[in-house]
Design brief:
Layout: E1 2-5, E2 12-15, E3 21-23, E4 30-32, H1 40-77
């Protein structure tokens, strides 16, 4: 059971099952209830965004690590004067 207050008159609206729309018994204001369902579309686009973000992060981090290792190797191999 879900309860909330009407934004127009302030009376409490109680909902027992899960209808799509609810009307206030006092003033008649209609409310559309949000459905909290999980869907594959949100999962897919979240995974795509996560892959793109991680590619940027790990590419930049990997490049920085390899440059640091490359500079160390160059410093060790360079002839001493």
């Amino acid at each position: 059971m879900v309860s909330f207050q009407c934004s127009t008159c302030g009376s409490t609206i109680s909902v027992a099952d899960k209808p799509k729309t609810v009307t206030c018994p006092s003033c008649g204001t209609a409310y559309t209830l949000a459905e909290g369902s999980w869907d594959w579309g949100s999962f897919f686009w979240g995974a795509v965004a996560g892959i793109i973000f991680s590619a940027f992060v790990f590419t930049a981090t990997g490049r920085a690590i390899m440059e640091a290792l490359g500079y160390r190797v160059i410093e060790k191999v360079s002839p001493k004067e």
